Amino acid sequence: MNRLALEAFADELEKNARHPFLAIPSARKAGRAAMVGLGLGAGGLAATGMAMAPTLPENPGGVFRPKRDTEFQSAVRKYYRQHGIDEPDEWRDWSADVPAVKGKPSTSWSAVQGNEAFRAEMKSIVESAARRRGVDPALLATQLRAESGYNPFAQSHTGPLGLGQFTRRTGRGYGLLGGGFDIREDPVAAADASARLMSTLLKTHGGKAPRAVAAYNWGDANINDALRSAGIDTATPLSDPAAFATMRPETQGYLRRILPGEVPKKQ
Q1: Would the pLDDT of 49 be above 80?
Q2: How far apart are CA 59 and CA 13, in angstroms?
Q3: Angle at alpha carbon of residue 134, lines to 110 and 116, rounded to 5°
Q4: Which residue from 7, 14, 238, 264 has the highest number of Cβ atoms inside 10 Å of its Cβ?
Q5: 86 neighbors 80 (Cβ within 8 angstroms)
Q6: 3-class state of residue 39 by DSSP
Q7: Which structural domains are found in the chain, ordered by start?
Q8: Alpha carbon distance 267, 249 (integer Å)
């Protein structure tokens, strides 16, 4: 099985990470055993002469991180060059500012709450990315604070990772992941990708921030399906109570945190 097939399989695991079956440790072990039996485990890959591809972590929603810092740095610098971002003179180890848990940076949203200087630095990075891509800096800063608490290592149990909480699929589309690298934990690249995505969504929806923010959180297809199911025109603004009511609870809360004055208040 080639790398693309493995990544597609990992996408399916992430997409279905909340499935009860996958939550059972014995089921995960059985899945790994089946992969080895099919020659897809570490031994099977080595026998084919392929470079080691991402292996399934204990948490199906987990992510593959490059083993060597040089690989990560090379991928980050390549992203910077491709997207017109100035490279720093020296490499910055962002993990030094995030509390460690079992030797790794904490993936908790609240991990950097007490480090105001670091949070201010993350906010500055986000605002710079927003200005670069023509997005309201205050909007993107508020949005990514809600997404990750400004922790560049924040990770959802279902897989989304980094400042902008990109999934593997979306991250691949925006150049943050693919071909064995995953740079969603780099705050500069992640903030830039989030700004690019929001710029696209705002243009798609005629500058309507509530709809663009909702699409970032839930996806346009889901929003359109929800509106159509309720017999509501998909162009109806989410400031309309009936349209807003079709959003899932998570998206309603997300919109109220980011744009409290532009969507219906909680009753």
Answers
A1: no
A2: 10
A3: 25
A4: 238
A5: yes
A6: coil
A7: 3-48 (no CATH), 69-258 (1.10.530.10)
A8: 13
